[in-house]
Design a protein that fits this description.
Layout (H helix, E strand, L loop, with lengths): L6 E3 L8 H6 L10 H18 L4 E5 L3 H12 L5 E6 L2 H12 L3 E6 L8 H10 L5 E7 L1 E2 L4 E2 L2 H7 L6 E5 L18 E5 L11 E5 L1 H9 L9 H9 L9 H17 L1 H21 L3 E2 L10 E5 L6 H12 L1 E5 L8 E5 L6 H17 L10 H8 L9
Parallel strand pairs: 1-13, 3-4, 3-5, 5-8, 8-9
Antiparallel strand pairs: 2-10, 6-7, 9-10, 11-12, 12-14, 13-14
Helix pairs in contact: 2-9, 3-4, 5-6, 10-12, 10-13, 11-12
Bound molecules: pyridoxal-5'-phosphate.
Length: 390
Amino acid sequence: MNVEQQYLLLPGPTPVPPSVLRAMSKPMINHRGTEFRQLLEEVTAGIKKIYQTDNDLVIFPAAGSGAMEAAVVNFISPGDKVLAVSIGVFGDRFAKIAGEFGAQVEKVNSPWGEAADPDQIQDILRADNGHDIKVVLVTHNETSTGVVNDIKAIKKAMGNHPALLLVDAVSGLGAMDLKTDEWNLDVVVSGSQKAFMLPPGLSFMSVSPRAIEAAKECKNHKFYWDLENALKYAQRGQTPYTPAISLFFGLQEALNLMLEEGLENIIARHAAYREMVRTGIKAMGLNLLVQDPVASSSVTSVLAPGGLGANKIRRSLLERFGVVVAGGQQRLDDFIFRIGHLGFVRPLDLLSALTALEIILYENDFPIEIGQGTREVQKMFVIKEDALNE
Ligand SMILES: *Cc1c(COP(=O)(O)O)cnc(C)c1O
């Protein structure tokens, strides 16, 4: 099927709205001129609204992993002790980056499919009387499993311990609530190709005043990711090196769309997507990897039924119906498939994907009636109350 007709239901990259694509086709401007200064100021202010912060915020021309590396090199010195909270692939990645840059990493892992335990973090930090732990790394939404961590509770569990909290919110921010200022989050990184509805290539990092002070003492090597330099240039409405200007045009339009819809509505819409997908999957008789209370609003992991591998289901969804869903990563490969439902996704895109899935399960002799799962999802849309009576 033509890629322009596919249902792109990945947890990134996500579909890009046509108006954002058009905005990105504008001619280049001088990145040291007035127009760019205005553009940078406008988009920075817009992103801060999604972050719910008044902290400083820098934009990097990079994948999300770039901003993760920026967080590491600006706040962690070689030899620093770091507590890395990992509940999956992206938590592991944050820990790995810290290790590569010389940190002494202590990992606290949860089983894949579960959330981090704030009590466990509290115990570790309370035992650290000498305050040797300088930084705590945590993932907001673990994309590999579809689990959302309780960042507010984790910050609270840190108590008066002075360690900085660095949050990877690449796939969660703009889909689920993350109150950077109210929850007192020191550093939050995010990326363009998830809830921000842009192509890959931009990532963001907010920094609290306390984090900025800590960065001044940081001994790690950096040039591209240098926060102090980026903030100095931002004062003049510039970036230290050539920015990804086309993506900035797209970002301006994407933020217009997001702010027009309103953050609260966006968060509610994503929660509704989560409910739709989970309701449909459960009604089909399939199992979900993640329990309801910690389930992500961005992505849902579905366990492939016995005898029918996840990758075979994915292949059929793509070849027969043009539905693109993600596979399981690393040890979850072929055990799960992941339905992304964030950004520029419509409710009926999800219903279409569920319809296709039902047909494929039926054809593969999975015990299911046509309409068994999708009917329950359709009912969620019905306003007329009588229609819901059996
Ligand atoms: C997508 C994602 C990233 C960054 O991925 P890139 O491929 O580097 O853009 C980081 N963390 C999480 C939780 C993600 O979902």
